[in-house]
Amino acid sequence: MKNIFLNRVVKNFILMMIVLFSSEIIFRIVLNIPIFEWSLLRIFLGISIFSLILSVLYSFCGRVAGNVLTFLTCLAASIYALIQAGFENYLGVYMSVGTSTQAGAVTDYLSDYIKSFNSDFYFILIPVGVLFLYYLFLERKVKAIIRNRKYNVLEIIGGVKAKEDEKNRIRFEEKKKLRVARLSFLTLAVICGCLYYYSLTADFMQNKLQLVSNKSLFNNPEMPNIAVNQFGIGMFGLLDVKAMLLPNNGLDDEFNSYTKPEQEITDYTRYIDDTVWENLIESEKNSTYKKLHNYYISKEITPKNDYSGMFEGKNLIVVMMESVNNIVINEEYFPNIYKLYSEGWSWVNNYSPRNSCSTGNNEMSGMASIFTINRSCTANSYKDNTYFNAIFNLFNRQGYTTSSYHNYTEQYYYRRTIHPNMGSMKYYNTVDLGIPYSNLYQEWPSDVTLMEKASDIFLQEEPFMAWITTVTSHQPYYQSSELGDLYLDDFSGTNYDITLKRYLSKLKTLDNAIGKLVEILDNAGKLEDTVIVLYADHYPYGLNNNVIESILDYDVDKNYEVDRTPFIIYNPTLTPTKFQEYTSYMNILPTVANLFNLNYDPRLYSGFDILSDEYQNRVVFADGSWQSPLGFYDAATGKMNYFGDDEYTDEEIMEINKEIMNNIKMSNLAITSNYFEYLGNKLVEGNAPIVNNSIIKEDDVATEENSEGTFQENS
User: Fold this and answer.
1) DSSP 8-state class, residue 372
2) Contacts of 161 (CB under 8 A, 6+ apart)
3) Same domain, 573 and 611
4) 572 and 653 in a common domain
5) Which one, 52, 74, 575, 629, has least CB within 10 Å?
6) pTM of whole model > 0.90?
7) d(CA 322, CA 540)
8) How far apart are CA 402 and CA 416, in angstroms?
């Protein structure tokens, strides 16, 4: 045992290994991640490799420096794990280097973020705390005891010279053993590396129902929840950095060829002339673009249905509501939103899945119906991309005047670039609208003023399409603020937590804003000619889940129920309807496009028309989890949790997972390659039927002979 503590390589390895592995175990316990799985063996191997290599490197720095570096490494890893636990608890996602553009936002809500920590999160720091105490009080005593056992005896029987000679001999032996230890540890690291690689493909360490293979995930940790489950939080951090420095899209050659499905011609056929696109595929030299061409053109074209063109010619206002969930569906507290919810169309199983930079990314998904990159603040990172198929461009080519509005600055998202690149003819922020704002994070502008200012602009045009992104109901809720305290008296008779009361106060302003919007449209005689769409960017993640449950009647901790949010389509002429289909913001664009009878290609979207008879009743979350009427698939664990007796076969789950993963991967590849700008430009060059850089769908040119031998025009 004495040689272990005298050999700095062995000692630092053992100490580092114990601390890092203990922290991983505690991390999994406090976040309720399963422990007794084969993935724990892979995590142990990964930490072993890391500790073996670093203990060898640190041994060249001398004993004291090696101790310091070992401690700092363990401290950094433990703090990183603590921060990640906090992020997962607070925002529902793991932090990534790809979200660095939001560093300012993190700084702003740092106080609320720290306050949200569960007390057991700090247990993650216990192992490194024990290591600190060892270095501070025990190490020197342990070494002294071991050495003095030899030296005391020598002083008695041989004198000082014998002691010095023995010291020199011991130093020589220690250096020799140090060299042997270094070589042995590097050899052991190679062996562990081979075992680690084997663990990525070994059958007994795989879950066939996992959304993405461990090998693919190791190359590209695109699904952080699964990566943390399979590799541990420390290895995820290393893989995250590796993916940034050495990008790998993880795609195989599956889409290098395609089979375009045959269309069965009916009265609802949506005819699209693919001649130019097919010619482009034949001549395409870029392998990435060819892969994307083949994927998108091979998707099925969603036919028209009984709802097609129902809102043709009407105006459209889309309101993305900041930090809203089903708390807002309350007639007593929020009568204006409840009126639209109860008198219009509403989807009771709608969700707003969280991801990195949920506001900007989910706004982007609403506008372009595309899966953003899970580890990236995609809206900002790829702000210069253009989308000829985005919602603004669809209305632009239909002769509408489009515009977009937000009552804050560009501090967090580059909307002045993003919105025009989506096709908005004019974007107005709080400065453009003349809305006063504060640089204090807790003070947000009023959404009521936003509706008044925006309506002054878009009501000047006919027909118009407007996108409005609100801000009043944004966190923080722990701190006092003007709008957070404005309506506190309305909730004085409740026993709600003060953070919830402040949130409800802010929601009251949002509700007043929706009421003001309806009032303005009605007074202008535009209400019946206008369709209002309401959806939420994400749930109020500044509130603790226990606080949210105190006002809702369902468990928000399971199956991502905390992400359940309102989705409403309102027009005073509609028959009130509650739809049961599972859906998300991903489906807004194709649904609206069909309702307004716009010229669009449904294959270019990750979402689907929810009103279609062919709609797959399923909502997909950002980490690849999904939910349907049968049950919830948890991507992190690769397990299906059923609601009743009806179940999928394993083959059906695997097929659904494959479809979802392909959709996500190809969406991400389209974003990183700016594919839709490329495709739009190429279709223009090929003289495809395009207006304003958008494909025109020739819905009325296809004909088919009917059973009586006559020709019927497609409707």
Assistant:
1) P
2) none
3) yes
4) yes
5) 575
6) no
7) 8
8) 14
Mean pLDDT of the region 577-604: 97
DSSP line for 670-707: HHHTTHHHHHHHHHHHTT-SEETTEEPP-TTT-EEE-T
Token pair 């009103």 in the structure block, residue: 611
Distances (CA, A) of 632 to 546, 558, 565, 636, 640: 22, 10, 17, 12, 6
Between the alpha carbon of residue 307 and those of residues 268, 526, 596, the distances in Å are 11, 22, 9
**Residue 178 resides in a domain:** yes
| Whether residue 236 is found in the same domain as residue 318 | no
Gyration radius (Cα) of the chain, Å: 30
Burial class (CB in 10 A: 0-12, 13-18, 19+), 529: middle
Residues 281 and 347 in one domain: yes
**497 is a domain residue:** yes
Contacts (Cβ under 8 Å, ≥6 apart) of 522 = none
677: buried, middle or exposed (CB in 10 Å: 19+, 13-18, 0-12)? middle
Cis before residue 463, ω within 30 degrees of 0? yes
Q: Which residues contact 607 (CB under 8 A, 6 or more apart)?
A: 369, 584, 586, 587, 588, 589, 590, 591
- Dig out the tokens for 215 from the structure: 């090998």
> Do residues 699 and 606 share a domain?
yes
| CATH number, domain with residue 434 | 3.40.720.10
- 159 has a pLDDT exceeding 70: no
DSSP secondary structure, 447-493, as one string? HHHHHHHHHHHHTTSSSEEEEEE--TTPSP-SS--HHHHHTGGGGTT
321 located within any domain: yes
| Residue 186 within any structural domain of the chain | yes
pLDDT at position 401 is 98
DSSP symbols for 525-579: T-STTEEEEEEESS--TTS-HHHHHTTSSS-SSSTTGGGB--EEEE-TTSPPEEE
Whole-angstrom distance, CA of residue 380 vs CA of residue 368? 15
The full DSSP string for 594-613 is HHTT----GGG-SS--TTST
Which structural domain, as residue segments, surrounds residue 451? 255-704
CB atoms within 10 A of CB 144: 11
Query: Sign of dihedral through CA atoms 353, 355, 361, 364?
Result: negative
Q: What is the 3-state secondary structure (H, E, C) of 218-284?
A: HHCCCCHHHHHHHHCHHHHHHHHHHHHHCCCCCCCCHHHCCCCCCCCCCCCCCCCCCHHHHHHHHHC
What is the domain count for the chain? 2
Task: Look at residue 406 and tell me whether its pLDDT is greater than 90.
Answer: yes
Half-sphere exposure at residue 91, Cβ-oriented, CA atoms within 13 angstroms: 25
Picking from 230, 229, 535, 538, the residue whose alpha carbon sits closest to that of residue 355 is 538
- pLDDT band with cut points at 50, 70 and 90 for residue 696: very low
| Distances from the Cα of 616 to the Cα of 264, 265, 342, 587, angstroms | 19, 21, 25, 11
Distance CA 454, CA 336 (A): 19
- For the segment 448-500, what is each residue's pLDDT rounded down to a tens digit? 999 999 999 999 999 999 999 999 999 999 999 999 999 999 999 999 999 99
Cβ density class 403-414: b for 16+ within 10 Å, e for less: bbbbbbeeebbb
Q: Give the separation between CA 517 and CA 509, rounded to whole angstroms.
A: 12
506 with 569, same domain: the answer is: yes
- A 10 A CB-CB count for 62 gives 12
Whether residue 488 sits in one domain with residue 469? yes
Residue that the structure tokens 């142990």 belong to: 44
Burial 317-349 (b: 16+ CB within 10 A, else e): bbbbbbbbbbbbbbeebbebbbbbbeebbbbbb
HSE-CB for 290 with a 13 A CA cutoff: 13
Whether residues 228 and 333 fall in one domain: no
Name 641's bridge partners. Answer: 632
Q: How far is CA 452 from each of CA 122, 260, 338, 428, 509, rounded to the nearest angstrom? A: 47, 49, 21, 13, 13
Per-residue pLDDT tens for 526-555? 999 999 999 999 999 889 889 999 999 899
